[in-house]
Design a protein that fits this description.
The structure holds 2 protein chains of 2 kinds. Chain A is an alpha/beta fold. Chain A has a domain at about 1-65. Helices cover about 40% and strands about 20% of the residues of chain A. Chain A has a 4-stranded parallel beta sheet with strand order 2-1-3-4, with helices on one face. Chain A is globular. Chain B has a 7-stranded mixed beta sheet with strand order 2-8-7-6-5-3-4, sandwiched between helices. Chain B has helices at about 15-30, 40-60, 70-85, 100-115, 130-135, 160-170, 240-280, 305-315, 335-340, 345, 360-375, and strands spanning about 5, 65-70, 95, 115-120, 140-145, 175, 195-200, 210-215, 285, 295-300, 320, 320, 325, 330-335, 350-355. Classes of the chains: A alpha/beta, B alpha/beta. At the A-B interface, loops of A face helix 8 of B.
């Protein structure tokens, strides 16, 4: 089975980006959608998006035309990593794209 | 990156060549301890004396009223703790505002934890405090009022002289953090009606790690540390001679140039505001229209993400700052903008652009050339 790659894009607040990524890895695993969740700080590189199947952005760094994969804004998770509406959107996107 | 443009002078300023030259004397030739009686000590003491004179002349106080500290944060701490630790908590009340620098807010919160009464007076939508609100907050046990001269995030000039007059009539000490106001042409210690005034060198083209608290003669304070008689025993420890020399030179520099720089910066700021409003629809300028320092501009871009704008501006060579700050757990909105009533989404889309003596119209033209696209790309 092909590994599904999710990348959480964040900025200066690296702690938050890592916390969100770790939380989402657990959420996806619990939903039966185990995925490889990585992080990418745009302070390190904002011109070239990382390779991924789904990009989740804490800030508006890249557009879908730049990434070549679906891009979701997850800004509410800066304040609340359990933000239900955002998590539902992520799960719906992953379910739609997840390799069979 | 094209040639870098620094527009964060509220955060810090580069050391001016004249300041550097003055400091080099203290670093290379004069190494004595100012407390030593021999020739080496006397050379150092003479440099400190000269710098104290420069600071005093710069703000119109007596030289013996200048107490050198490690910076404005220490000066603010000395003003607040030095006043309140002379009293039992039940008998002392502090008045300050919701938009002070953390160097005042955090000591005020600590005093509250220690049992002292503290009133945080709110500000209006432009970030200014109403002297009448301060008057209403006064109690018979109020010992100190602390109100900053110029707000470091939005540039609002507070009515410190009016508040100081009220304080004096009521027999209450008055402190102002004047860090961002040293370049105001009319700045004079006596005219402000304050008893305590904090200042910092690195905001006025001097070095980091040095500042001062101006303490009006007759004002009693308790030192934060003990271990020597330096600085009238209010700040014991061997003096930071190169830093002190740098502060003196920086103060002299700013006071010499403020008459010409103030209107120049005012004109630059006004042009920047006008062109921002022309080129980027919906921008909001935070702070007062008048009574605002000419070197500070806080601007909100509705719907845009401040950090993404900052990143792209940084990539294009521009240094500005944000209306929010990263803490260990989250990104916290500016307490100043929040106190002014800005909603979180506007705070998150706010940049502070601060100008300095080296800033030119060409710098701002370059900023305006890239900003509209950067803002549009940062819309969520």
């Amino acid at each position: 089975m092909t590994e599904y790659r999710v990348c959480v894009i964040g900025g200066w607040c690296g702690n938050r980006m890592v916390m969100v990524a770790e939380h989402l890895e657990g959420v996806l695993s619990n939903a039966g959608l185990p995925s490889r969740v990585t992080t990418h700080s745009v302070w390190d590189n904002y011109t070239r998006p990382p390779a991924a199947d789904l990009i989740l952005q804490l800030l508006p760094a890249f557009t879908q035309s730049e990434t070549g994969c679906p891009v979701l804004t997850i800004k509410p998770m800066i304040v609340d990593i359990y933000h239900q509406e955002t998590i539902e959107r992520i799960l719906n996107q992953v379910r739609a794209d997840y390799p069979a | 990156m094209s040639h870098p443009v620094y527009l964060d002078y509220c955060a810090t300023t580069p050391i001016h060549p004249d300041v550097r030259t003055a400091m080099l004397v203290a670093l290379e030739s004069v190494f004595g301890n100012p407390s030593s009686m021999h020739w080496a000590g006397r050379q150092a003491a003479e440099l400190v004396r000269g710098a104290r004179q420069q600071v005093a002349e710069g703000i119109g106080c007596a030289p013996e009223e200048v107490i050198f500290t490690s910076g404005a944060t220490e000066a603010d701490n000395l003003a607040l703790f030095g006043t309140f630790h002379r009293y039992a908590p039940a008998h002392a009340h502090l008045i300050t505002t919701t938009v002070e620098h953390h160097a005042v807010l955090h000591p005020a919160e600590r005093l509250a934890q220690q049992g002292y009464a503290v009133t945080f007076v709110p500000v209006d939508g432009a970030g200014r405090v109403d002297p009448e609100a301060i008057r209403k907050a006064m109690r018979k046990e109020t010992r100190l009022i602390s109100v900053m001269l110029v707000n470091n995030e939005v540039g609002a000039i507070q009515p410190v002289a009016d508040i100081g007059r009220l304080a004096r009539e009521a027999g209450i000490l008055m402190h102002t953090d004047a860090v961002q106001g040293i370049g105001l042409p009319e700045l004079q210690f006596d005219a402000l009606n304050v008893d305590l005034l904090s200042l910092s060198a690195h905001k006025i083209y001097g070095p980091k790690g040095i500042g001062a608290l101006v303490v009006r003669q007759g004002t009693e304070l308790q030192a934060l540390i003990c271990g020597g008689a330096q600085e009238r025993a209010l700040r014991p420890g061997t003096e930071n001679v190169p830093g002190i020399v740098g502060l003196g030179a920086a103060m002299q520099l700013v006071r010499q140039h403020c008459q010409e720089q103030h209107p120049r910066l005012q004109a630059l700021r006004a042009t920047l505001v006008e062109r921002l409003q022309q080129t980027i629809p919906g921008v909001i300028i935070n702070g007062p229209a008048a009574e605002v320092a000419p070197h500070v501009l806080s601007v909100s871009f509705p719907g845009a993400d401040g950090e993404m704008m900052l990143i792209r501006l940084n990539g294009a060579g521009f240094a500005v700052s944000l209306g929010s700050a990263c803490t260990s757990q989250s990104i916290e909105p500016s307490h100043v903008l929040t106190a002014m009533g800005l909603p979180r989404e506007l705070v998150d889309g706010t940049l502070r652009i601060s100008l300095g003596y080296p800033t030119t119209q060409a710098d701002l033209d370059a900023l305006l050339a890239v900003l509209p696209e950067i803002v549009s790309r940062a819309i969520l």
